[in-house]
Design brief:
By secondary structure, the chain is an alpha+beta fold. The protein is built from twelve helices and 13 strands.
């Protein structure tokens, strides 16, 4: 793991060994005060892993992070005589979009959106890092018989014009129908995981390769459909086809289809947001403002990790946005918004469900959404689901 603020996966999750910077609340503090020339020069020497455990191969300390040194540390830790189960986190393509290498300005690609430009430029550096890592695996003979999954974190929201949803009522309003009132809705946001109506934040990369003798053997191509990252685990189990495999395992996801003819077009996929933090929904994030808004919700335990205080947990769960997808339709439930939003992801239009007259399967979607998040919503005085079910029951009658 080349970054530890957004993930604290370690040996407690069943891994035998973890490569990366040290986990702990001190990471955020030390990385913000350690920008000293001597430290930056020394940080990529082998001994710095012991001298600066919170900074060494730490992507969050972007001014000194060396992606190739991170690759080498991971490759050196792999077993050469037994199978490896390996999870690697490449976090260069993430805010604050910094690099120890100079990023040149290409005026032909500059669109006036700094974060968007840096994101596109850092895609190149991530490509180089992953290519170098795969080459290292191949040289060590670790692709002689291997299954590889490549997946991305949330997509990024940059407030690009092509990503915006439009209100379907704006088109219908030309008919002077008083019921088709143009309504305001925040349908876009900076960052990722911050707004479930920003479709680009939920559309992520999911790819798989099967290697034999260091070469991929599966055909290249794209399988269209509605899938989720929770489908990876059941797909791995299904692909092993071993007598020792426990067929009684229960998964939230399904085994990914190998051909388009195997698609399940009636499937529901659920997506929820991260916690709302106003200081993050901006083009340039101020670390101090983020800390000021969120620090009171956490406490530092004896073992050095920041943990959310129990009294804030249920409150924050109630503030999350929730949605369900079926085919091209998304039904969204937003806190503090007393209506449900229906999105057609094909046309990039949103509807106020109370005024919707089309043939989207919203009844099934609403039932699925409420059942899936029942445990989260059960302690609310009157859940949004109950309000919605009552309202739409009246509308249908």
């Amino acid at each position: 793991m080349d970054e530890r603020r957004f993930n604290q996966i370690d040996e407690h999750y069943g891994f035998d060994r973890v490569i990366g910077p040290k986990v702990g609340a001190a990471d955020a503090i030390i990385a913000n005060v350690a920008d000293i020339p001597l430290i930056n020069l020394a940080i990529n020497t082998p001994i710095s892993g012991y001298m600066f455990p919170y900074l060494y191969i730490n992507r969050a300390y972007g001014k000194a992070y060396d992606p190739m040194r991170f690759n080498q540390e991971v490759l050196n830790a792999l077993s050469v005589d037994t199978p490896n189960f390996l999870a690697v986190h490449f976090c260069q393509l993430h805010w604050p979009f910094t690099s120890k290498d100079f990023i040149e300005l290409d005026k032909s690609r500059w669109d006036g959106n700094y974060n968007h430009y840096m994101h596109r430029e850092l895609i190149k550096t991530v490509d180089i890092q992953i290519a170098n890592f795969m080459s290292g695996l191949r040289q060590r003979g670790m692709l002689e018989n291997a299954i590889v999954y490549l997946l991305s974190d949330h997509g990024e929201g940059f407030l690009l014009a092509q990503d915006r949803l439009t209100a379907a009522t704006e088109i219908q309003n030309n008919n002077n129908n008083p019921r088709d009132k143009i309504e305001k809705l925040n349908v876009a946001a900076w960052g990722h995981g911050t707004n479930i109506l920003s479709q680009e934040q939920s559309q992520v990369l999911l790819a798989s390769l099967r290697y034999r003798h260091s070469e991929p053997i599966n055909h290249t191509g794209k399988v269209p459909g509605l899938f989720s990252l929770i489908d990876i685990a059941p797909t791995i189990v299904a692909s092993l086809k071993s007598d020792s495999t426990n067929n009684d395992w229960q998964f939230d996801g399904i085994a990914l289809p190998q051909m388009q003819t195997d698609l399940d077009d009636t499937r529901f996929v659920f997506v929820e947001s991260s916690l709302p933090v106003r200081a993050i929904n901006t083009s340039f994030i101020d670390d101090n403002k983020v800390m000021s808004e969120t620090a009171s919700q956490y406490e530092v335990r004896d073992y050095g990790r920041a943990v959310m205080k129990p009294e804030f947990y249920k409150k924050n769960i109630a503030l999350k946005q929730r949605s369900v997808y079926e085919n091209q339709w998304q039904l969204a439930m937003l806190p503090k918004v007393e209506r449900l939003i229906l999105v057609n992801t094909d046309t990039m239009q949103w509807h106020n469900l109370a005024n919707y007259q089309g043939n989207a399967p919203w009844q099934k979607m609403l039932t699925a959404l409420c059942e899936h998040y029942q445990a989260d919503l059960v302690n609310m005085p009157k859940t949004p689901c109950q309000n919605s079910l009552d309202l739409y029951s009246q509308l249908k009658n």
